[in-house]
Amino acid sequence: MDPVDRRGRYAVEFAMHGGRGPLSVEHHFAGDSQLMAAVQTWTLGPGAFEGMHTHDDPPLEELYLVTEGRARIRQDGESFELGPGDSLRSPAATPHDLANIGKGSLRVVVIWGPPGTFDQSGFGSFRRALEARRAADA
Fold first, then answer.
1. Is the dihedral of CA 65, 74, 96, 45 positive or negative?
2. CB of 55 within 8 A of CB of 112?
3. What does the pLDDT read at residue 2?
């Protein structure tokens, strides 16, 4: 198994949930990773979108992280605009979609898998992240 996935090497065109427009999916380490989550990079052309959907059978949680371009995600009756570095979590069974609202390509890292937790308290970066979140939300 090659430990490196090169950008675009395994990209496939794929229409998501009734969406349309150019949408390319790179499923990183498909068939090789033992993570309990899928890690993908999606590239959507201008005007492309993923259709409204939920993940309830089986229940899956998704995280969208924008790396390039402008996105609009509608989720559970609200609309959110995201740019590079912004992320959105979509809990299992929550209606959501994704659209490219920019003039150029939209690149998004999408991580999805079954809901669950594991003990991260032994990791200093996790503890510091929790402290930062608490301070910012105070």
1. negative
2. yes
3. 86
How many structural domains is the chain composed of? 1
SS3 (DSSP) at 10: coil
4 belongs to a structural domain:
no
CATH number for the domain spanning 48: value is 2.60.120.10
For residue range 75-126, list pLDDT tens digits in order.
999 999 999 999 999 999 999 999 999 999 999 999 999 999 989 999 999 9
- Give exposure, 59-74, as e/b (b: 16+ Cβ within 10 Å): ebbbbbbbeebbbbbe
Q: Using an 8 Å Cβ cutoff, are 14 and 38 in contact? A: no
Long-range contacts, stretch 79-88, CB < 8 angstroms, 24+ apart: 87/63, 88/63, 88/64
pLDDT at 54 over 90: yes
Say if CB 42 and CB 110 are below 8 A apart.
Answer: yes
Whole-number Å distance between alpha carbons of 62 and 27: 14
The pTM of the full predicted model, rounded to 2 decimals, is 0.93
Domain that holds residue 133: 12-137
> 52 near 16, Cβ under 8 Å?
no
* Centroid of chain to Cα 96: 12
